[in-house]
What we know:
Blueprint: E1 2-13, E2 18-30, E3 34-39, H1 45-53, E4 60-65, E5 68-69, E6 77-80, H2 92-102, H3 107-120, H4 136-149, E7 154-158, H5 166-183, E8 186-190, H6 194-200, E9 203-207, E10 214-219, H7 234-249
Parallel strand pairs: 3-8, 3-9, 6-7, 7-8
Antiparallel strand pairs: 1-2, 1-4, 4-5, 9-10
Helix pairs in contact: 2-3, 2-4, 3-4, 6-7
Amino acid sequence: MHLQVNQLHKQFKTKRSTLTALKDINLHIQEGEFVCAVGASGSGKSTLLRLIAGLDTPTAGEILVDGARITGPGSDRGMVFQSYTLYPWMSVVENVEFGLRLQGVPKAKRGEQAAYYLEVVGLSGFAKALPKELSGGMKQRVAIARALASQPKILLMDEPFGSLDVQTKEAMQHFLLEIWRRTRTTIFMITHDIEEAIFLSQRIYVLSSRPGTIKQELQIQLPSEAIPHIKRHPIFQKYNDEVMRHLCEDGSQSNSSPNQLYLVS
């Protein structure tokens, strides 16, 4: 799998003028990579993800998956939103099977794939439960299992842990990293949390504020061995400082905490 974004522009018409949300976006993601994008308010992170998902169309430029131009939603791209988007009247396993059913996958095969991915996310024992019986973190695990069950070429994640409490969020970050290491699914995730991006990804794209452009691309190379409290490690802090520097240079970070960007994008 290879995702390529070339000279991407996105403009929106307003009552008084035209708003440029994204300008000259060029990025790439290789098969098996985990890549994050961070940026300030107005940087267009969510807009970029919607364009890659095929939920919106670019004003100019192109987005390619394995050389094929994206013209709309497709099963080659799975999507996980911040809100869980589960169907409340369906059981956990029915939610996981939903995309497969739309694709016309036979019932037996649907059940087999759903069972596998429920095992992957650690929810085999909750297959018959309804979403209302699950915690926030468990609901997001179901959403991830549903996206993975369709075996997309790339998994797109729109601030998936933004609505979770701090402890659950931390646990979900570790969980997602283990899922990625186990499945080697290609992941592109946007987040307002700088530490989250550094902890999870191999590369980070830092976006400037409106119009959103690629300000910096950072390679992340943390120690390969498991280190307790890795987020306190000097190397981790060095990356954190570098991302912060680029955001502060953009003049958009004055009221944010040192570790997170609680911003609308």
